[in-house]
User: Which sequence fits this backbone?
């Protein structure tokens, strides 16, 4: 489905401003198969890997359904400033970001970080060593969520927090300080959602209208 790609971006450490000389380049994309491919019993795949390593792409409808649920991995595709491919449809998709953002992010981002942090806490409690890189991303995601709920803006770059986050990744921050940081961020997001400029739910109607228009335009091109 790579030939139907409408948007491809670099995500991960390079998009967050956390990259080092050893960092991989993670790519994510969205593809729009021709409408005629949906008329047969066998539908286009909802996602594909590759062709290069560290790349995942989603079929546009599946992508939007995940974005409406405030899936952090999907939303960052629309917020990355490292764009490698963007067709006119890709630009339209990027412009949909405000309709996709909502207070659902409060629950989605907390769920996305809860299990990882619980595993780290269990490792510490048993005398082991947590996966510090995952702990770093817990803090990064909660910081991003706090800003998103407070300002309505989805910003991937960590900015002034870079040095602190890299220190966490290297295991140089005492565990008690990490726990306090995470707890403070959880409290901040809980307060931020009460006064957030974001709507309670995304604009599903606008997103669906755009998807229907994409399907319709593709069908007309095949006539």
Assistant:
């Amino acid at each position: 489905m790579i030939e139907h790609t409408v948007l491809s971006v670099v995500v991960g450490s390079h998009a967050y401003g956390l990259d080092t000389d050893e960092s991989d380049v993670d790519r994510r994309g969205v593809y729009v198969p021709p409408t005629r491919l949906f008329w047969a019993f066998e539908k286009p795949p909802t996602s594909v890997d590759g062709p290069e390593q560290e790349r995942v792409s989603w079929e546009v409808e599946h992508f939007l359904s995940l974005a409406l649920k405030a899936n952090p991995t999907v939303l960052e595709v629309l917020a990355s400033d490292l764009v490698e491919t963007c067709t006119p449809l890709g630009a339209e998709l990027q412009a949909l970001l405000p309709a996709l953002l909502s207070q659902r992010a409060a629950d989605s981002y907390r769920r996305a970080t809860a299990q990882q942090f619980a595993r780290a806490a269990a490792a510490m409690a048993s005398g082991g060593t947590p996966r510090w890189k995952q702990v770093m991303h817990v803090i990064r995601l909660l910081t991003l969520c706090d800003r998103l709920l407070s300002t309505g803006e989805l910003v991937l770059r960590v900015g002034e927090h870079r040095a602190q986050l890299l220190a966490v990744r290297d295991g140089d921050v005492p565990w008690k300080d990490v726990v306090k940081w995470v707890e403070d961020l959880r409290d901040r997001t809980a307060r931020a959602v009460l006064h957030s400029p974001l709507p309670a739910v995304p604009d599903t109607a606008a997103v669906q209208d755009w998807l229907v228009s994409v399907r319709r335009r593709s069908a007309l091109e095949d006539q």
The chain has a mean pLDDT of 94.
